[in-house]
Amino acid sequence: MVIRRLDQKREMRSLLREFLECVIRDTIIYSEDDPNARWKTVTAMDVENALSRQCPTLYYLGGEEDSEED
Q1: Which of 4, 22, 34, 47 stands the most exposed, by the fewest C-beta atoms within 10 Å?
Q2: Measured in whole angstroms, how far is the alpha carbon of residue 56 from the centre of its chain?
Q3: Which domain of life is it from (predicted)?
Q4: Residue 43's domain spans which residues?
Q5: 65 is a domain residue
Q6: What is the pLDDT of residues 17-64, one digit of tens each?
């Protein structure tokens, strides 16, 4: 049972590592291909584009929008 659990953990770590490597590689490609980029800075939009390429359905899980009730 312990060996199976360790094997599952190793497999999950391998899958996560592969996914993150792909996302990071795509993020760098998006940031380098931006014709308006003056700096070598990765933006949130670059990461969002890379993630949308890996998994097409993304949900925004941020905080509430800036809305004030009068």
Answers
A1: 4
A2: 11
A3: Eukaryota
A4: 2-54
A5: no
A6: 988 899 899 988 888 877 776 777 888 888 888 888 877 665 555 555
